[in-house]
Amino acid sequence: MKKIYAIASAVALATAFSTTAQAGATLDSVKKKGFVQCGVSTGLAGFSSADDKGNWAGLDVDICRAVAAAVFGSADKVKYSPLTAKERFTALQSGEVDMLSRNTTWTLTRDTSLGLNFAGVNYYDGQGFLVAKDLGVKSALELDGASFCIQAGTTTELNLADYFRANKMSYTPITFDKSDETVKAFEAGRCDALTSDQSQLYALRIQLKDPGSAMVLPEVISKEPLGPVVAQGDDEWFNIVRWSLHAMLNAEELGVNSGNVAKMMESKDPNIRRLLGLEGIKGKGLGLQDGWAASIIKDVGNYSEAFERNVGMSSPLKIARGQNALWNKGGLQYAPPIR
Ligand SMILES: N[C@@H](CCC(=O)N[C@@H](CS)C(=O)NCC(=O)O)C(=O)O
Fold this sequence. Notes:
By secondary structure, the chain is an alpha/beta fold.
């Protein structure tokens, strides 16, 4: 009996080792080519959009940049692949991108049937509705029979169907592949309402010629935890992406930012010293240089800096922290400790 156990555990061990032999492949190939290939949206203000010179910026782009800073000590070592909602998962599965950071909702189906892993949540969102003020509607429950501009391949499509079924109402979906097509159609009056994650409604509203002509309705009909995604089968890479986000959150919690990170190197606080790679496990567990998190904070900033700059009060979107405040400030953002 004992012998059978010994053989079984030897087989299990061998299997475990052959899986870990695979792990690390992404970090190796990223290092070899010298940049992170990051899948982003085709253009969504505040989250991932490019200027006319092709420079990408946004809260999602900052996660790509954070990973590059952790790996290379420079946030600029990223190449971007603009992807529609329909294209995004295939691009990750085929290895065309090393990671996806594109307002993507973490769901059971996506996590378990597509060969993908969600590395965390960089924005807690929920689905809402945008209507023209002229429509004279104050609640989504008044939208029976309405037509909706909506993006294909999204959770938005599925939630809308659930909501209308649950409230015994009917609707007509008008679907598009890209957000600029969706917003243009809404503006041209091709649909009564536009529905998407609320953060995106704010981003799309400022694209209208007259943003004051449209309003966001009060209903939030779903949970949309948005976060970066990697392909399954490479735990080391998964950890790097996950802890890059956690480092930004821990930095905010500990009061370390891009402006004071150099000075914080002299801090006596053991939490800060561990974050900055001055003591503790440093970069060893992740297979990175010791100052991986310090590089993120220097080049990208902590979570609060990224939030405010891209979508918060210092940005055109003017979104309040709300659920995206840290856990000790009334929000949901909570990163495990660096120790
Ligand atoms: N969070 C939802 C929706 C994501 C989504 O793609 N939303 C559209 C609505 S605005 C978008 O971001 N489009 C950007 C683009 O066209 O690239 C999901 O993961 O399915």
